[in-house]
Amino acid sequence: MVPPAQAEAPAFDTRDHAMMRLAMDQALNASLHGEVPVGAVLVKDGQVIATGYNHPVGSHDPSAHAEMRALRMAAEQLGNYRVGASTLYVTLEPCMMCLGAILHARVTRVVFGAHDPKTGVCGSVLNLPAHGQLNHQTQVEGGLLAEECGRLLQDFFAQRRAQRRAARDALRAQQDELARWAATLPAEAALGELRLEGGGLDS
């Protein structure tokens, strides 16, 4: 996951690092559920008010990304979908859907870890936060613990590829064994006919 060129790297403090590590813990929860490991933490007034991890497969919900789940939890906690002044930490660059929800929730700052060259809209595929026409502006800073966040994804997909290879190898071995067994059937059938015609080889 190669980050796009940036004019100036953002300055992150120790609290930013601590919050991103909490988001990484959430990403591990996603991995334990067989989901792509992405995690999010929402901080308001210096307190963590919501967390979320990727869970679209298990919940049968295409919108159940880590950011969306954290925003839903925060809205329930606050009794208002407009979260307001807050920082959302997420291990992967938000997609278009998630950024739209972030803007509607009036989150003031987003900090993400790894860049997403396929669906990221905060500088990778698109840079939507830079559009001045939007009715709400959110400060977006990327690249915090990017290597570690990216490694969570790399390890997950490497393990999944290994599992698929193992499943294919097991199926191939089963098919080979079945083919070897099937190849013995004509000889055994002929021997059975000989036994019947001769009244048995031992008679």
Annotation keywords:
47% helix, 203 residues, 2 domains, 6 helices, alpha/beta, Cytidine Deaminase, domain 2, five-stranded mixed β-sheet
How do the strands and helices of this protein lay out in sequence?
Elements: H1 14-32, E1 39-44, E2 47-53, H2 56-59, H3 66-78, E3 87-92, H4 96-104, E4 109-114, E5 139-142, H5 146-183, H6 185-197
Parallel strand pairs: 3-4, 4-5
Antiparallel strand pairs: 1-2, 1-3
Description:
This protein has 203 residues and is an alpha/beta fold. It folds into two domains: 14-156, Cytidine Deaminase, domain 2 (3-Layer(aba) Sandwich), CATH 3.40.140; 157-181. It has six helices and five strands. The chain has helices at 14-32, 56-59, 66-78, 96-104, 146-183, 185-197, and strands at 39-44, 47-53, 87-92, 109-114, 139-142. The mean pLDDT is 88.
Mean pLDDT, all residues: 88
- How many helices in DSSP terms? 6
Report the structural category. Answer: alpha/beta
Q: Low-confidence segments, ≥5 residues, pLDDT <50?
A: none
Ends: how far apart?
76 Å
Corresponding CATH superfamily of the largest domain: Cytidine Deaminase, domain 2
Proportion of residues in helical segments: 40-55%
Mass-distribution shape: elongated
- Approximately how much beta-strand content do the residues carry? 5-15%
For this structure, the quaternary state is single chain
**Radius of gyration based on Cα positions:** 27 Å
Strand order in the sheet with the most strands: 2-1-3-4-5
Query: How many domains, in number, for the residues?
Result: 2
User: How is the main sheet built?
Assistant: 5 strands, mixed
How many beta-strand elements?
Answer: 5
Helices and strands, in order, run as HEEHHEHEEHH
CATH topology of the largest domain: Cytidine Deaminase, domain 2
**CATH-scheme architecture of the largest domain:** 3-Layer(aba) Sandwich
CATH class of the largest domain: Alpha Beta
